[in-house]
Amino acid sequence: MGLTVVSGASGRLGGRVAGRLGAPQRLLVRDASRAPAIEGAEVAVAAYYDRDAMRKALTGAATVLMVSGAETPERVAQHKTFIDAAVDAQIEHLVYTSFVSAAPDAVFTLARDHWATEEYIKASGIPYTFLRDNLYADFLPLLVGEDGVIRGPAGDGRAAVVSQDDVADSAVAVLREPGAHSGRTYDLSGPEALTFTEMAAVVARATGRDVRFHNESLEEAYESRASYGAPSWQVDAWVSTYTAVAAGQMDVVDQAVANLTGRPAMTLAETLRG
């Protein structure tokens, strides 16, 4: 296996991948002090928007894991700069963490960013693999309000939530044999699609809290999030997470995790048990 660059190596997903991949690898971070301590790994510092620094960080790599950048209005532009730097560095394979049902008209507004990034990667000519993640199962407890309620306009829609460990293991499998996955798009999901009512019940059992789901109207959803003072694009993203579930765009159960890792994907309950 040639040199692999793992971007976002100080984050939840990139850190998991880096810890499991083994050498030779280069950890790409914005702050060297936050890079995980992994024997034999190099550390490179670069921001997605800095083409020159990114080109230097990627030079010499055979394969690159591009963990999608922070959610900002500039994310697609920053992704394009990263991809341009990857072309400059003449990398051999790019693995990108995308999102399920990515499309130009996706209901979940941020999934449109992922589609635009996928299209730019395809146009770049770099051999690629796309890992389209479902909602992270690990984050479900964070959606519970102080009153024990998960709120959102999801109706009876379902999401096949996936554990970050399963995503990381799938990414490692691809990074170790990138040529076998060239041009492929994998939907990374859990083994079952659940409604938010069902997910709330699982979270309740895992945490010992009284947790329930309240199906908001669109008006209620925007009103309940107004107090955060977030910009409109971010509020749209928060709300559209639920409306995308209502529209069936996260009701995608796939065997990719099992096929890539050689074991079944974890359920929500298994994920929350740790």
Structure explained in plain terms:
The protein has 274 residues and is α/β, with parallel strands linked by helices. 39% of the residues lie in helices and 17% in strands. The protein contains 10 helices and 11 strands. A 7-stranded parallel beta sheet has the order 3-2-1-4-5-6-9, sandwiched between helices. The chain has a two-stranded parallel sheet with strand order 7-11. It has a two-stranded antiparallel sheet with strand order 8-10. α1 (12-21) packs across α5, α2 (51-58) crosses α3 (75-88) and α3 (75-88) runs parallel beside α4 (109-124). The longest helix is centred in the middle third of the chain and has 16 residues, at 109-124. The chain is globular.
Features:
about 270 residues, alpha/beta, two-stranded parallel sheet, 10 helices, 11 strands, about 40% helix, about 15% strand
Topology of this protein?
Elements (H helix, E strand, L loop, with lengths): L3 E4 L4 H10 L3 E5 L12 E4 L5 H8 L4 E4 L8 H14 L4 E7 L9 H16 L3 E6 L15 E4 L5 E2 L4 H13 L7 E5 L5 E2 H12 L4 E4 L2 H8 L6 H15 L9 H6 L6 H6 L1
Parallel strand pairs: 1-2, 1-4, 2-3, 4-5, 5-6, 6-9, 7-11
Antiparallel strand pairs: 8-10
Helix pairs in contact: 1-5, 2-3, 3-4
